[in-house]
Structures are given as structure tokens and as C-alpha cells.
Specification:
By secondary structure, this protein is α+β, with helices and mostly antiparallel strands. 34% of the residues lie in helices and 26% in strands. It contains 16 helices and 16 strands. The strands form 3 sheets. Strands 1, 2, 7, 8, 9 and 10 form a 6-stranded mixed β-sheet that branches. Strand 12 (353-363) and strand 13 form a beta hairpin. The model is unreliable at 414-426 (pLDDT under 50).
Length: 426
């Protein structure tokens, strides 16, 4: 049996869980559109919503490797970490590995309006807490450990033994030695391939496999490529546990030690306006426009805002902490496009009918080709008067998935100045 057998099984839960694993190792087995369709259906059904709750509240990096599921279909799981752990000649390997997996990574709550952002900034202005803004990199999370100044181990973000060992490839990107002689210094960053590098990989190796800066980084970190391609692999770091009590000092020390540090800027609490209207003007200039000078050149999907004081933990719920947020609007609003419908694809499942619209192929800003948009059910198709030859509006979200925009969402986008790309200039 094989991946083909898995797909042929038509079991949405098994396909969806396997799809997350294969995307994690940089080898997708279904399209982004189909994955999004499965996700929507599984979240809407009360039984599967309950069974898959843990999957819905974590990233695919933190999923356990589905050994049993893969074995059921005769698929061999990637056991690169297990092999590395078994054959490592370093007697301290286990300690380094355990140290990197002591803490679960937290996610940033997405904020998509000035009103939501104002509540966060207002709160910490009143608490007199300085804030650090930094570019939210759109890459693969990488955690590394240095002992007495030497790089010992690099892993993907994961849960215990489910992390992938990136050490050999990471040594081509991160400093192999640093002037910080701490015993176990844990450093976290995001790895990505530059836009130029993605084009190079596509033209030289495979024009379908290397889709984005993030997926290309997964490929280069997991599988050794020719040395020439690693000049396009970059890792920017944004955390170093126990290095300092503030983010500002942490970033300064990391920069002085030879790391590429995430673009950032310290905001003193006194600088934050105490009036909402003035806050909007200030935030546009001092946060969004300032950070866009970096975001325009590097793959990013927002701006992280967090309390500069690392001794302040705030409140935590699920995988989120209220000491930080991710701003995902203004220049980081999802890209919006207009396409022309050339076919309507209908599939009747056992319970639901699913609808996909095929449009005239068009290139999106992430360098991919958009050709299909999920409509999900016939009612949406009818209410939006979508037929062959119609103009259809969709947005490209951070997971490279095309989402139909309709009704108030489309009106709001145009009023708020979202650029609609494609065949309509409005």
C-alpha cells in the first residue's frame, strides 16, 4: 500500500492527519485547497471536532508522528531523528535533546484590526510596560542549543521525540561557535529561503516542489542539497532563554555574538498615545510603515508585539499568552485577488456536497499559481451568483490557501483600501 492507497481510502480524518505530517516534512500529499476543505468539514462536525481538538489548537510541528496510521498504509515514517539519536557519538546528545524539548512553544494570537490592537497597547501603557515590535517571519521554527560556545544540536519545533534533527544543515547557516560560554544556551529562530533562492531551486531542481520560502527551507533543512543552495537559506533568531531579562538586551547580545536577529524596534510605554484616533495614526507610521521596510524584502506574515520584560509572564490560555500578539493587518492583510471562473467542480460526498471553482490560472505574490478556490457548498455558489465567466474575489492567506471573499467582507476590504489584484482595478 502507499500514499495513493491512503487517498483512495476516502477517510477524511486519516487523510487530514497524514497531510499535516507530510506537509511538516516538506512533501505535501494533497493540495492546499483540499486540506482547507477537510479542515472546515472536520471542525464543523461535532464528533470530529471533539476527537481532533488537540490538533486544532496546535501547529503541525507539534503533532506526534502518526506511526500507526502510516504503517496501516505501508508508508515508512521519516525516522531521521531516531537514527541520529541512536547513532550519535556525543554522550551528551540526550541531555541536549531533552533540554530543547523542556518547554512547549507558545503561539501569538492574531489581531486584525486597530480596535483589537488598541486594547493590547492601552493595557500595557497603563501597566507602564515597554513593548518590543519585531517582524513575524514566515519560516520554519528552529531551536538550537549551544554548550560552552559550541553548537551542539538543532531541532524543529515539536513534542519530545517528534522533533526533526536539523543539526548538520543548520551548521551551514548558524555560527558554529559563539563568545557566550553558557552551559546550555537555547536559541530559537525561523529559517526560510530567500525569494531569489526559491526561484533558483525551482529552475534548477523542481518547479513544483519548492512552492514557498517556508517549504523550501523545510526541504533544505531535512535533506542535504548541493552546497551552493545554502547561501539562500537564512535563519533569523528571536529568543534565547535565560540570556537576559529583557528582549532588547537579548537581541543586542545575540547580534553581538554573530547571529542574524529578527528586525525589531523598542517602544517605550510613554510613546503610546492615550487616545484611539491618535493611536491609529501613530501605529501606522511607527509600527506598520517602519517594519514594512524589512517585510517587503523578507518573507513575513505580520508584526509581533510583546512585553519587553521577560520576567513578566502574563496569563496563558491553551497555547496563547496575553503578553504578546501578532498584528496581521495594514501591509500584512491577506492578499486579495480577482479571478475569472472557467469551470465549477462539484463532488457529492456521503453527507456533504463540496464545490470548488476553477479560475483562469494567475500568479500570486508568493510565487505560486492560483487555479482553484473552495466554495464549500451550493448555497454560497448561488447566493454569490457565481457562474462560468463570472469575476470571483478571493484572498490568499498565510497558509497559501485561496479563500472566497463575499458580501460584507468584500465590501469592507474595498472600503479599507485592500488592493484587489487581477482583472479588476477597483
Amino acid at each position: 500500500m502507499s500514499v495513493e492507497n491512503l487517498i483512495a481510502s476516502r477517510n477524511p480524518i486519516k487523510i487530514w492527519i497524514a497531510a499535516r505530517y507530510f506537509y511538516r516534512i516538506g512533501d505535501p500529499i494533497i493540495t492546499d485547497e483540499l486540506y482547507e476543505q477537510y479542515t472546515k468539514l472536520l471542525k464543523e462536525h461535532p464528533n470530529t471536532k471533539k476527537v481532533l481538538h488537540e490538533y486544532f489548537i496546535r501547529t503541525y510541528d507539534e503533532d506526534p508522528i502518526p506511526f500507526g496510521l502510516l504503517q496501516e498504509f505501508g508508508i515508512k515514517a521519516d525516522d531521521s531523528l531516531i537514527k541520529a539519536k541512536s547513532f550519535s557519538q556525543d554522550p551528551e546528545y540526550g541531555r541536549y535533546f531533552d533540554a530543547l524539548n523542556e518547554d512547549k512553544s507558545l503561539s501569538c494570537r492574531a489581531v486584525v484590526s486597530y480596535e483589537e490592537a488598541w486594547e493590547f497597547f492601552k493595557k500595557y501603557r497603563e501597566l507602564k510596560k515597554d513593548l518590543m515590535i519585531s517582524l513575524k517571519m514566515d519560516g520554519i521554527n528552529t531551536k538550537s542549543i549551544y554548550s560552552n560556545g559550541k553548537l551542539k544540536l538543532s531541532l524543529s519545533r515539536g513534542r519530545s521525540s517528534e522533533s526533526f534533527d536539523f543539526t548538520e544543515q543548520t551548521k551551514l547557516v548558524l555560527p558554529s561557535s559563539i563568545p557566550l560560554n553558557k552551559k546550555d544556551l537555547k536559541i530559537t529562530g525561523e529559517s526560510f529561503v530567500t525569494y531569489e533562492g526559491v526561484s533558483k531551486l525551482r529552475s534548477d531542481i523542481d518547479n513544483t516542489k519548492y512552492k514557498t520560502c517556508k517549504s523550501s527551507a523545510i526541504s533544505l533543512l531535512r535533506v542535504r542539497h548541493d552546497l551552493e543552495y545554502y547561501k539562500f537559506l537564512k535563519t533569523v533568531v528571536f529568543a534565547a532563554e535565560g540570556l537576559a531579562t529583557t528582549l532588547a538586551k537579548t537581541f543586542d547580545t545575540l547580534n553581538e555574538s554573530g547571529f542574524n536577529v529578527v528586525p525589531h524596534k523598542l517602544i517605550k510605554w510613554e510613546e503610546i498615545p492615550d487616545d484611539f484616533e491618535r493611536f491609529k495614526v501613530w501605529a501606522k507610521s511607527e509600527i506598520f510603515d517602519y517594519m514594512w521596510q524589512f517585510g517587503e524584502k523578507m518573507p513575513s506574515d505580520g508584526v509581533v508585539v510583546e512585553v519587553n520584560d521577560l520576567t513578566f509572564f502574563g496569563e496563558q490560555k491553551d497555547q496563547y499568552s496575553d503578553r504578546q500578539i501578532a498584528l496581521k493587518f495594514e501591509q500584512w492583510s491577506f492578499n486579495t485577488y480577482t479571478g475569472i471562473v472557467r469551470n465549477i467542480l462539484w463532488r457529492q460526498n456521503r453527507v456533504h456536497a463540496s464545490i470548488r471553482v476553477e479560475i483562469e490560472p494567475m500568479e500570486t505574490v508568493d510565487g505560486c499559481t492560483a487555479q482553484f478556490i473552495n466554495v464549500f457548498n451550493p448555497a454560497i455558489l448561488i447566493s454569490n451568483h457565481i457562474r462560468i465567466g463570472s469575476l470571483i474575489h478571493f484572498e490568499r492567506n498565510s497558509d497559501a490557501v485561496n479563500i472566497l471573499i463575499q458580501n460584507d467582507r468584500l465590501k469592507d476590504g474595498k472600503v479599507n483600501g485592500v488592493i484587489v489584484k487581477g482583472n479588476e482595478s477597483s
